[in-house]
Specification:
The structure holds two protein chains of two kinds. Chain A is of the alpha+beta class. Chain A contains 27 helices and 24 strands. Chain A has four domains: about 90 residues, no CATH class; about 210 residues, no CATH class; about 160 residues, no CATH class; about 190 residues, no CATH class. The radius of gyration of chain A is 37 Å and the shape is globular. The longest helix of chain B is centred in the last third of the chain and has 26 residues. Chain B has a single domain, classed as Winged helix-like DNA-binding domain superfamily/Winged helix DNA-binding domain (Arc Repressor Mutant, subunit A, Orthogonal Bundle), CATH 1.10.10.10. Chain B is of the alpha+beta class. In chain B, a hairpin with a 7-residue loop joins strand 2 and strand 3. At the A-B interface, helix 2 and helix 4 of A face helix 3, helix 4 and helix 5 of B.
Chain lengths: ~900, ~110
């Protein structure tokens, strides 16, 4: 109960210090009164007595000042003394200091690194004025049974809405930019007139923002806004740049404005926009995109809440549906969410998982350090016993131990911050595909502040254990302390408890990493439906003035394919785009032409040339491939995948008629292809149709099947196509396998980082387990000596130590598994093909931890068994 | 004698206060009074020395202050010796006696 009493005393002291001033006043006044009374008794008149008393005191304020000095002085002095003593202790044992500081640095470092990401990505508000009023409007496309079609009535969220003041649309794409004959691909976005004002970029550095009515006409691009960075890089910061002509996507355009420096476009992943945009192109508003899954952005009117805006939009939508019952038979659901929330929606689960994992690493580090401190404090037991006997209070010793540990923690925290800097660099190098606002991640004031707080908390956490354990009742801390006694027994229990928790703590990150590893392996193994090996893709950007008609473009592709097929080492070549699992894909709705109101399916589409299936290794289940004849004769034909065929026609699709939302003319199904996962490896529910390039033309991709390495294939492809004439630049030559890999980069990233943390926790736990058991065993050397002398065999000793170690690790593992079951739920959204309670993962982790524990237990046990009884008994 | 405390070894005042409180708890003015009487007027301790000393001793945990409110009149803070203070006092007393012996030896030699 002495702790309680100390705490109560502290609390009293604290309260006292709050009204210390008033107390001091009272105390001195009482003094004066008592003295005055004494003077009165000696015969002075009351007024004179009081005056005499005051003179005697010699200035109340001076006295108060001196008392205050004592109060402050002693506190500061004690702290300085403690810190200096602590630093001295560390300085005298540098090896120990290094281990402890590095352990803390690791624990703090990973936390600071992850915090810097979480802070920049999830918590910091978006860099736009009144960013909390910017919202994203999304249509629930899966709930729209029949798609938006351009012919029928469509609900326009802009209509009548009073609470969402402006609604705008932005669609990211890369663009080809030619300045003075030098071409490059740059990030671009097509924006409606009010996107930039909505995001708060009201005044540009130069010129004005793009206006659809002035800067484009009938899909012909006429004016663009360029980034500050592009302006400096390619146009030397020319102040007369407004009106300058550039070639963008083969259009002759003029610069109408230059963006302010450092402007970043932060939009939901569904908008496909890069954060740092070089070209801002005009676009007119198109509702179709909303109903195909492109989010709109808007601004909630001042004074209105998000809930009100959502309610208003929902009401408008339902009254529209009520008056146009045939337009949305399945109802219409539009949701309004804050931009900041939608932007981070995809990465939040992973970041939360990583934050949890680093928390465990820090806890393990703290337990490790506590263990070390405990072992060390024990060797100092004599020092403490002497000091207590000489009258040092418990509080005094505790304070000193805490100060010592804080010195360690602060040094560790500082090293941790350096480590975090490296970590952030590493993060940049690992480059997750779509981590929003990654450019803003860095070690800033908030990170430093947070790290300092964490350092303090962990310093107190791991410092408190030995402080409490070794300053307890002075009576048992006899001066001959140094070995046996109640102190040792208690210490051993504490050690065991710490080792146990360490093993339990390390299990959780290990299981999390194991689950991510399995997920990643499952993704690599998933039946994607095509063969990415040995396929090389390359994009071509045709000059639309030179290739103005579909026929000319088709002819060009035919020629290109023929030339590519002749290249040495090329097994097959064709054209089709966009390639499966490439980031940008639009969503469409398909339905049976003879059943407009019936089932429709949501999917994606791809425009291809003959031979595409052969190159990609996609099996043709029935029917035929697209032929050159289809293209020349402009037949409206399509090949559907087996999933769509089964869904719409129970598999019997050949010769049937398919309606697609962009085409007024139905398509005749001529073939059924194997199902491929085109959008996301995790997604086995999105259908894909293939149409000849004249039906719907998208920027095409050359696909070539060749076993030759990329380094020889890439220049050959470029040369073969570009040699056909000008205006057909080939770029972005990438192996198909790389595109597949890139589509699961986020999972790889989470898996790698989580594995790193798991390994760190395992190493820390292993070191802690080994160190502690070795220490505990060495403490019992004498006991073993006695046992051996009394006839115990080495095997008995081995068993004794071994049993203890195994019991500890077994108990720890059981606790850890229980904890893991609770914690790994966080991961659910990140997993693929594996449940949080995956038996294989759990078994592997148990085996792994068991193996590490076995080694950590085995070495000290083996050593104990080899003790020479004579030496052991003499050791004292 | 002007203020013998000022010229004496640091810690003497502490020792005087601790010893005074060893007999019974007292408030500030009473401590000064008691020392004045016991030393037959040799040590007249001023408030400017007494109160800082009292607060320092309290912070060190040797003595403990407690507010008392008499039935009539102003509340008053009285100090008593703690367990640690008692131990400290006996250690200090031993030291002091050694010093006295040593000083006497030097001065009488």
């Amino acid at each position: 109960m002495s702790i309680l009493r100390t705490l109560l005393a502290r609390a009293r002291a604290l309260r006292r210090s709050v009204d210390a001033e008033r107390d001091l006043d009272d105390e001195l006044r009482a003094f004066v009164e008592v003295r005055a009374a004494a003077h009165e008794r000696r015969g002075l008149a009351p007024a004179d007595a009081k005056r005499a008393a005051l003179i005697e005191v010699g200035g109340i304020d001076q006295v108060k000042e001196r008392v205050r000095d004592v109060r402050i002085g002693s506190a500061v002095e004690a702290a300085v003394r403690d810190v200096r003593y602590g630093a001295g202790v560390l300085w005298r044992s540098p090896g120990y200091a290094l281990v402890v500081i590095m352990t803390i640095a690791l624990g703090i470092g990973v936390n600071a690194a992850i915090f810097s990401v979480v802070h920049a990505v999830l918590w910091r508000s978006l860099p736009y004025p009144e960013a909390d009023r910017i919202v994203v409007i999304e249509a629930d496309t899966a709930a729209l049974p029949t798609a938006y079609s351009s012919s029928g009535p469509v609900f326009d969220p802009r209509a009548q809405s009073r609470l969402i003041t402006s609604i705008a649309l932005a669609e990211g794409r890369d663009a080809s930019l030619m300045i003075d004959g030098v071409m490059e691909r740059v990030a671009s976005v097509r924006v409606t007139d009010d996107v930039l004002p909505l995001l708060g970029a009201k005044s540009l550095l130069l010129g004005r923002t793009v206006i659809a009515a002035e800067d484009s006409r009938d899909y012909i691009l006429k004016g663009v806004v360029i980034s500050h960075e592009l302006w400096l890089r390619r146009l030397n910061g020319d102040p007369q740049v407004i009106g300058r002509r550039l070639t963008v996507n083969n259009f002759d355009v003029q610069v109408v404005g230059v963006m302010p420096p450092g402007f970043r476009l932060i939009l939901p992943a569904g908008n496909h926009a890069e954060e740092s945009i070089d070209l801002w192109l005009p676009r007119s508003f198109g509702l179709g995109l909303l109903y195909r899954g492109l989010p709109l952005i808007g601004r909630v009117a001042p004074g209105a809440t998000l809930t009100e805006a959502q309610a208003e939009l929902s009401a408008l939508a339902s009254s529209f549906v009520a008056s146009h019952p045939s337009a949305y038979p399945g109802g219409l659901r539009l949701t309004v969410r804050p931009l900041g929330e939608v932007v981070t929606r995809d990465v939040k689960p992973a970041l939360m998982a990583l934050s949890t994992a680093v928390g465990f690493v820090l806890l393990i580090a703290c337990v490790n350090v506590a263990n070390l401190l405990l072992a060390r404090a024990k060797t100092r037991a004599r020092e403490f016993a002497v000091r207590r006997a000489l009258g040092a209070t418990r509080l005094r010793l505790m304070r000193q131990l805490l100060a010592e540990n804080l010195v360690v923690a602060i040094l560790g925290g500082a090293c941790g911050l350096l480590l975090a800097r490296l970590g952030v660099g590493l993060l940049e190098w690992l480059r997750p595909v779509h981590l929003p606002r990654q450019a803003e991640v860095g070690i800033d004031g908030a990170v430093v502040l947070w790290t300092a707080g964490l350092t303090l908390v962990s310093g107190i956490l791991f410092g408190l254990v030995p402080a409490l354990a070794f300053t307890r009742d002075s009576q048992s801390l006899t001066l001959h302390a140094g070995r046996a006694g109640s102190l040792m027994v208690r210490g051993r229990h504490l050690h065991r408890g710490l080792v146990l928790s360490e093993i339990a703590l390390s299990i959780v990150p290990l299981i999390a990493a194991g689950l991510m590893l399995r997920t990643f392996a499952n993704l690599l193994d998933a039946p994607i439906g095509f063969e990415p090996a040995h396929v090389v893709t390359a994009r071509v950007s045709l000059n639309l003035e030179a290739f103005s008609t579909v026929d000319r473009r088709s002819a060009f592709y035919r020629d290109a394919i023929a030339r590519l097929r002749e290249l040495p080492g090329v097994e097959a070549a064709s054209v089709g785009g966009p390639p499966p699992l490439a980031p940008v894909r639009s969503t469409l709705r398909f339905w049976r032409t003879d059943d407009r109101e019936g089932t429709s399916s949501l999917g994606s589409h791809q425009s291809i040339m003959p031979g595409y299936f052969g190159v990609m290794g996609i099996p043709l289940r029935s029917g035929r491939d697209i032929s050159d004849d289809d293209i020349v004769r402009r037949r409206h034909v399509a090949i559907v995948d087996e999933r769509l065929a089964a869904q719409l026609w129970q598999g019997d699709a050949i010769g049937q008629s398919l309606s697609v939302e962009y085409s007024k003319q139905p398509l005749e199904v001529v073939g059924v292809a194997g199902y491929i996962r085109s959008r996301d490896i995790r997604d086995a529910n999105t259908s894909l149709i293939y149409v000849p390039s004249h039906v719907y033309e998208i920027e095409q991709t050359i696909v070539v099947k060749t076993p030759a390495p990329l380094s020889t294939v890439a220049p050959a492809i470029k040369q073969a196509v570009e040699a056909l004439g000008p205006g057909r630049p080939v770029f972005a030559i990438r192996p198909m396998e790389e595109i597949v890999q890139a589509s699961i980069d986020n999972t790889r990233f989470t898996m790698l980082v989580l594995s790193g943390f798991a390994v760190a926790s395992l190493v820390l736990a292993g070191i802690g387990l080994y160190g502690t058991l070795a220490y505990l065993t060495s403490q019992r050397t004498q006991e073993f000596g006695v046992r051996l002398a009394l006839g115990a065999t080495a095997a008995t000793i081995l068993r004794l130590v071994f049993r203890e170690g195994c019991l500890l690790s077994g108990l720890g593992a059981a606790l850890g598994l229980a904890g893991a079951m609770a914690v790994t739920r966080v991961l659910r959204g990140l997993l693929y093909g594996v449940t949080p309670l995956d038996g294989v993962t759990i078994a592997s982790v148990v085996v792994l931890v068991g193996g590490v524990a076995l080694v950590a237990v085995g070495v000290p046990a083996w050593r104990a068994a080899r003790v020479d009884p004579v030496t052991a008994l003499r050791a004292e | 004698m002007a203020d013998p405390i000022a010229s004496l070894v640091k810690g003497t005042l502490d020792l005087l206060v601790l010893r005074t409180l060893e007999l019974q708890p007292l408030h500030g003015a009473a401590i000064a009074e008691r020392i004045f009487q016991t030393t037959r007027g040799t040590f007249q301790i001023k408030a400017g020395s007494l109160f800082p000393a009292l607060h320092r001793l309290e912070q060190d945990g040797w003595i403990e202050g407690e507010w008392e409110t008499p039935p009539k009149g102003r509340r008053i803070k009285s100090y008593r010796l703690t367990r640690e203070g008692r131990r400290h006092l006996s250690a200090e007393r031993a030291t002091w006696q050694r010093v006295v012996v040593a000083m006497t030896l030097v001065l009488d030699s």
